[in-house]
Design a protein that fits this description.
4-stranded antiparallel beta sheet; alpha+beta; globular; about 140 residues
């Protein structure tokens, strides 16, 4: 991802032999020379969290005036899509990681939205609406 003349990479890092996967970050000015963030990993597994087994595959994008990071977490009996939103992404990530109740509420909201928007029933309804609008 590029922003303000710098490139940012959010990557998976695995600690062996424990198979603990977390996310690190790095920046570059030229896409050839990279410097890792001093506080890596930037997204860590959290005991008792929705990402207690591992967290990975962070995707970051700009949406208007704020940043969004979506990542994959496994914990609490299943796989979850996690999200963080902020004008300053690093602050948002730390805020979520430091507040299990907030992380749980955001995970529940993300799961609800995913079911509402991406369930097969919802996709069928959206497709029907699209087809209906094209026929008129």
């Amino acid at each position: 991802m590029e922003h303000g003349g710098r490139f940012y990479n959010f990557y998976n890092a695995k600690h062996m032999p424990d198979w603990i996967e977390q996310m690190g970050g790095a920046t570059s000015a030229n896409l050839l020379d990279w410097k890792r963030f001093d506080n890596n990993p930037i997204v860590r597994v959290r005991k008792g969290g929705y990402d207690e087994k591992f967290c990975s595959d962070g995707k970051v994008f700009r949406d208007g005036d704020h940043w969004v990071m979506l990542y994959f977490g496994v914990g609490r009996g299943g796989a979850h899509v996690m999200a963080a939103f902020s004008r300053d992404l690093a602050t948002a990530i730390n805020k979520v990681l430091d507040n299990p109740e907030l992380a749980e509420a955001m995970a529940a909201a993300g799961q609800k939205r995913a079911r509402e928007v991406f369930s097969w029933s919802s996709i069928a309804q959206q497709t029907k609406r699209l087809y209906d609008s094209l026929v008129k």
